[in-house]
Amino acid sequence: MRRPFLVPAILALLLALTTTAVAGEFVAGGTFATGTSPRFVTLADFNGDKILDMAVANYGGNSISILLGNGDGTFKPPVNYPVGASPWMVVVGDFNNDGRMDLATMAGSTNLVDILLGNGDGTFQPAYTVTVQTNPIALAVADLNTDGNQDLLVVNHSSNSVSVLLGNGNGTFKKAVNYAVGSKPRWVSVADFNNDNKLDMVVANSDDNTISVFLGNGDGTFGTPTLYATGTTDLCVAVGDFNGDGIPDLATADDKTNTVSILIGNGDGTFKPRVAYSVGAFPQVVAVGDFNGDGKLDLATANQNSNNVTVLQGNGDGTFQTGVNYPVGSSPEDVAVGDVNGDGSPDLVTADLNSNSVEVLLNSGPVSLSPASLTFSKQLLHTSSAPKTVTLTNTGGSALNILSIAVSVEFSETNTCGSSVAAGGSCAISVKFTPAATGKQTGTLTIVDSSGTQSVPLSGTGTAVKLAPVSLNFGAVRVGTTSPPKKITVTNVGSVALGITSISIGGLNPGDFSQTNICGNSLAANASCTITVTFSPTATGSRSAYVMIVDSDPASPQKVTLAGTGD
What we know:
Residues 1-24 have low confidence and may be disordered. The protein is an all-beta fold. A hairpin with an 8-residue loop joins strand 2 and strand 3. The protein is elongated and about 105 Å long. The protein has 1 helix and 46 strands.
C-alpha cells in the first residue's frame, strides 16, 4: 500500500499489484524528468488502463507533473499542470463521483488547496481553489462521515491546525472546520484506531516531537487529541498493522534523529511508547508495504541528506530488522510504493528534489537467477552445445511453486526444480543451444512461478563451417627443421555454397607455421576441403599460432589453434 488514506479504487489497484510474494531486494529501474524541485510522488491509474501512473508535486515549479506509465517500469514524458505557489504534496481521490481519479494539492505559501478534476484519459482540468488556513503542507483523503463522498484533511503548518473539508460529491467542499494540533504539523494519516468503525486521524507535529491522535465521531468531526512522543522532528506518520494483531500501529519518520519510531496500537485508540530504528540521514517520509512476500509489513524511508532509501524488513511482531540502503537521486523527499512494471512485486519511486526527477527502484522478486544471462559460443548447425547452468534460488520466506520452465526454439533445457522450491532452496536449470540457422540466435529461458514470470536472455551463434580437428599440437620439433604435416578438414554443412575470402596464419608466432590448402574461393554445400599445416620452429620453447579462415559464414572468421615446442 502506498498511503493509508487512499480512496478504495486506488487501494484495490495497488493491492492487486503488490500482494504477490516478492523479495525486498531493489535494483535501479530508471530516472524520469519532472518539473522543478519535486517534493512528492503518488501512484494511481489516471487513464483506466490498469497501469500505475505518477503524479508529482513540483515545489519549485508550481506545477503537478503527470507521467503515464508504460507498464514495464518506464514512464512517458511529463505533462505539467500549473497550480498555486509551492505545492508540497499531491493526493488522489474521486471528488465528483464520476469514477475518474482527481487530484488535490496545495499552494504551500498561501492558504489555498487546488483541486484538479480528472478527465479519465490521463489529463486534468484546470485547478480551482478551496480556502483553508495558513501554509497548507500535507493532505489526506477519506470518507470521514460515511456519506460516500471523498473528504479532505489539510495540514496547515504555520497555523498549527488541520482543516477538515467534507466533500459534497460534486467536486466541491463544505467550509473548512479547523482542529488545533501540535507545533508545526507536517503530516496527517487516517485509520480506525479504536475499532469502532469510525475513522480517526493522526498528525505528525515536527517542532514538539509528538503526534496528535484524534478519535473520530463518525460524522466528520473529531474529539480532543491525545499526544504521544516520537523522535526529534517527526515529518511523517504512516499506518500499518506491524505485529499482525489486526490493530493499526504507527510509524514516524524522525528527521533529526535519523530514525523511524514505531508505536504499537492497543486497539482502544491509545499507543505504546515508541521504539526507534536507525535509517539514513534526515528521513522525510516512511512508506509501508510487504516487500519480501512473507505476509509481514516492511518499511521504506526517503532519506534527504544521504540520498538513499532505507528498507527495513518487518519481523511480524512489531519489530524490524536492520535497514538496507539503496542509492537514489539528490535529496529524496518522498517514497511511494506500487507495482510499476506489472510483475506482481511492489516497487519504490522517489521524488528527488535537487535532481528534478523521480527515480524507480524495481523489486527484483523472490527468485534469484545466476547468471542473469547465458551466451553460447559458435555452435555447428543441428548439433547441441555443452550445457550451461542457471541456478534458481528462492530468497522468499515460503515455498516457491514452479508452474512452468520453457526455452525458445533452438534451445533446450532440463532442470531439477520440480514443482516447488523450498524457502532458501535452489535448483539447477541446464540449457543447451542447438542452432537450426547460421548467425546470431537469441531466445529466452522463461520461468513461471508463484511470484510471477522470470526470464533469462539466451544467445548463441550458429555456424555451417565444421573444422576437424579444432586444434593441432605438433609436439617437440628441433629448431630449424620442419614437422610432418597435419591436416584440417573444412566441411560446409550448410545448404548454400560457402564463399572463402582467405586462409592465413596469425597469432603469436605465425612465422613458425605454414599452410597450404585446396579450398579455393568457394566450398559447395555439404562439401569438404583440406588445409595442410606444418611447424618449423625458429626458437626453443612453446610456440603458438592459429589458422584463420575468413568466409561468408555469419560466424566468420573461423580459427584452429596451433601449438608446438621448439627443441
